[in-house]
Design goal:
Elements: E1 9-11, H1 15-37, E2 67-69, E3 73-79, E4 85-90, E5 95-99, E6 105-111, E7 116-124, E8 128-144, H2 146-149, E9 166-173, E10 193-196, H3 198-203, H4 206-219, E11 223-229, H5 241-244, H6 248-262, E12 272-274, H7 279-292, E13 296-299, E14 316-319, E15 328-330, E16 333-337, H8 342-350, E17 354-356, H9 368-373, H10 381-384, E18 395-399, E19 407-411, E20 427-437, E21 442-448, H11 451-463, E22 469-475, E23 495-501, H12 506-515, E24 519-525, H13 526-531, H14 545-551, E25 557-559, E26 561-563, H15 569-579, E27 584-585, E28 587-593, E29 596-601, E30 604-606, H16 610-622, E31 626-628, H17 646-655, H18 667-670
Parallel strand pairs: 2-8, 8-11, 9-11, 12-14, 13-14
Antiparallel strand pairs: 1-8, 3-6, 4-5, 4-7, 7-8, 9-10, 15-16, 16-20, 17-20, 18-19, 18-20, 21-23, 21-24, 22-23, 22-28, 25-30, 26-29, 26-31, 27-30, 28-29
Length: 677
């Protein structure tokens, strides 16, 4: 049996190979757009508008001092205006041209001769870009995990390279932009080509540097290395699945993961997708569904857990995302239709001096009704508690499947029956939320030598009434390498706290961090970051997004949701960490429940199988933590209490007697004899 090891990996990939994947995926995106454009009326499509620069541009991979692979066709690509004609001319006499596609993307294949230096390229379109000091030789991609990333400057060989000067040995160090999608212009933050000198040698991977240097001196030709290193990645992550299919170990692992992830949701689809624009259209749909006994599964932004919006029994999916207006604000109370995105509501309120109390880590895509139906906690919970806290949900309007269907306005406690019920108790059409005065929040990253110190800091901040705060998450040292925007500023083997504080609290925060042995390593404007589609507000590394960030690079993990006790919180956390030192990558968030503050946890779990996951959950419970299992699909099983509140079950029986709303998700209704009932 072949075995795969997590080792430094050095791959030879000419630039043309890297561009091939880009081209294939671009073709798929184009086909998807054509299909969307051809969709008939009544079948909604989602279209995003992104500001686009004009004129000829190149990715940073193509710049002065670059090296092209000798004796082959090299792919040169970039962006331009749609249908703009681009010509690439090389100093050695080769040329090629292309026309930019509808997205502005273009590429050409350019022949290269044998090795040499002193070349140049001219790329001409709406303007001319000249690339100088181009060499031709051997180009290698050096990729791998943390041992690949360890720099020459941090190695025992640093002094040996203090005077190195090799002008025909060129280095391109990636900015660690790790995306599954092809390179897009706004993600082109990769770096620049540098000739080998003491400065560039020191910042380069010691493995990649020595490999390239030895090759350059042995062959006596120009050599370029492209360094791409990302901590914690297994070798499988750098290999296409088709390469691994003959490896039994990999096949078994993938099959087990697929089984666990899909569970009973695999293959479940609706018979029809409906996207109403108004409450009147919602009522028309529900009247027809009631008349013909058709199941109805409500869907918002689809950012939740537990498979809330996956239809188990076919029927209709009712998509509320077209219901976005109007929005009203009076006396600090916001009212909006179901499909309004949380980010849009918050920015709208900010223009009027207010902001949302609570939002999910999926704020930029989640809808307001989905946040309520999914049982929102999230950002803001450290100060305001969860959505279940009295006063955080003022009211809803909900459409029912009574005979006949009706629209009900529910206020205060009357709205509880639709809070965290996955759309099983009706279609939320409008939501009323209290706001809070807007703050110019700052995202702050604080590093600590160990997790316990970070935890003590987090709880101290949570209890500090004088510091206005919105969030405080704490992360095991194995997690920050997955956080693209700040990975490079977090020292290895350091725990991390990500917090949101108001400017008035910054001085106190710095003092508190210093008191607990922490050091601030990053600081950014929260609102500015979330308004920039290519930036990352720190809350997108928190809550459920932590696991998402890891899954982008490591598919061998899952996660849990749990709450630690009010008393002995950190002791409970440390018990779990000690019991599962390799499998549990701890991640906690500070939240208020009933006026008391503790830590919830959304740890990343190294996946083995269902049985081991059950053992880990039992270990959490033995340490005093309550588990809300995200690997199930019913309200009861996903709750730490294993039951649905009586007011929700009674409301369900009244407004949906036939059980047509999202059937299969409320066990106590579908199976009245079960323990959940």
């Amino acid at each position: 049996m072949k075995k795969l090891f997590t080792l430094t990996l050095i791959l030879l990939l000419p630039l043309s190979y890297m561009a091939k994947a880009e081209d294939e995926k671009a073709s798929k995106r184009q086909a998807g757009r054509k299909a969307a454009e051809a969709s008939p009326k009544g079948k909604a499509t989602s279209v995003a508008s992104v500001p686009v620069k004009t004129g000829l541009r190149l990715p940073s991979l193509f710049g002065d001092h670059m090296i092209l692979q000798q004796n082959m066709k090299n792919t040169i690509w970039g962006w331009a205006d749609p249908k703009e004609q681009i010509t690439v001319t090389a100093s050695w006499g080769a040329s090629a041209w292309a026309q930019a596609n509808a997205d502005g993307g273009w590429k050409v294949l350019l022949d290269t001769p044998a090795f040499g230096t002193g070349h140049s390229l001219k790329i001409t379109g709406s303007k001319t870009i000249e690339i100088k000091d181009v060499a031709i030789g051997e180009v290698w991609l050096c990729a791998g995990q943390s041992n690949m990333g360890w720099s020459t400057g941090n190695s025992a060989e640093a002094e040996l390279e203090a005077n190195v000067n090799l002008p025909n040995y060129r280095i391109f160090k990636s900015g660690r932009e790790h995306w599954h999608e092809p390179l897009k212009e706004k993600r082109d933050l990769m770096g620049q080509w540098k000739t080998c000198n003491p400065e560039s040698a020191a910042e380069t991977s010691v493995v990649a540097y020595n490999f390239g240097k030895k090759l350059h001196l042995a062959l006596n030709v120009p050599v370029g290395i492209i360094q791409e290193a990302y901590a914690g990645t297994p070798i499988e992550g750098w290999m296409p699945w088709e390469v691994q299919q003959d490896i039994a170990q990999s096949k078994e692992q993938k099959a087990e993961m697929d089984k666990s992830a899909k569970r009973q949701l695999d293959g479940k689809r609706a018979d029809i997708w409906l996207r109403p624009n108004s409450e009147d259209e919602v009522m028309s749909i529900l009247n027809a569904a009631r008349r013909h006994s058709v199941p109805v599964t409500v869907r918002g932004g689809a950012t939740g857990n537990y498979g809330q919006c996956v239809p188990l029994n076919g029927g209709a999916v009712l998509d509320t995302t077209a219901m976005t207006a109007p929005i009203t604000l009076k006396d600090g109370v916001l009212e909006a239709q179901a499909g309004a995105r949380m980010i849009d509501l918050d920015l709208w309120a900010r223009e009027r001096g207010w902001e949302l109390r609570l939002w999910p880590s999926t704020k930029r895509t989640a809808t307001i009704a989905g946040f309520v139906a999914g049982g929102g906690a999230g950002v803001g919970g450290i100060s305001h508690g969860t959505m279940r806290e009295r006063g955080n949900l003022l009211g809803v309007r909900v459409a029912t499947l009574q005979d006949p269907p009706a629209l009900l306005d529910l206020e205060g406690d009357e709205a509880n029956p639709v809070n965290r019920t996955y759309g099983t108790t009706g279609v939320i059409t409008r939501v009323r939320l209290p706001l809070t005065p807007a703050q110019n929040w700052r995202d702050i990253a604080v590093v600590f030598s160990d997790f316990a110190a970070a935890g003590r800091f987090a709880l101290a901040l949570a209890f500090a009434d004088g510091i206005p705060k919105k969030m405080c998450g704490v992360f095991d040292a194995r997690l920050p390498p997955f956080f693209r925007a700040i990975a490079d500023v977090v020292p290895a083997d350091h725990a991390l706290a990500l917090v949101m504080v108001a400017p008035s609290g910054l001085v106190a925060l710095r003092d508190m961090a210093r008191e607990h042995g922490g050091r601030i390593v990053a600081d950014q404007d929260t609102v500015a970051a979330e308004r920039d589609p290519e930036a990352t507000p720190f809350y997108e590394y928190c809550w459920n997004h932590t696991t998402l960030q890891v899954l982008k690079r490591d598919r061998g993990v899952t996660y849990l949701q749990c709450r630690f006790p009010f008393e002995g919180t950190l002791e409970s956390v440390e018990k779990v960490r000690a019991a599962f030192p390799d499998e549990v990558w701890m991640h906690t968030e500070c939240v208020r429940f009933g006026g008391r503050t503790t830590m919830t946890a959304l740890p990343v779990i190294r996946w083995k199988d269902d049985a081991r996951l059950a053992e880990i959950m039992a270990g959490f419970e033995a340490a005093g933590a309550g588990i809300a299992n995200p690997h199930v699909m019913t309200i009861e099983e996903g709750s730490g209490y294993r039951r649905v509140p009586g007011d929700q079950l009674g409301f369900k029986r009244r407004v949906d007697p036939l059980g047509l709303f999202n059937p299969g998700k409320m066990k106590s209704f579908d199976e009245p004899e079960s323990d959940a009932a």
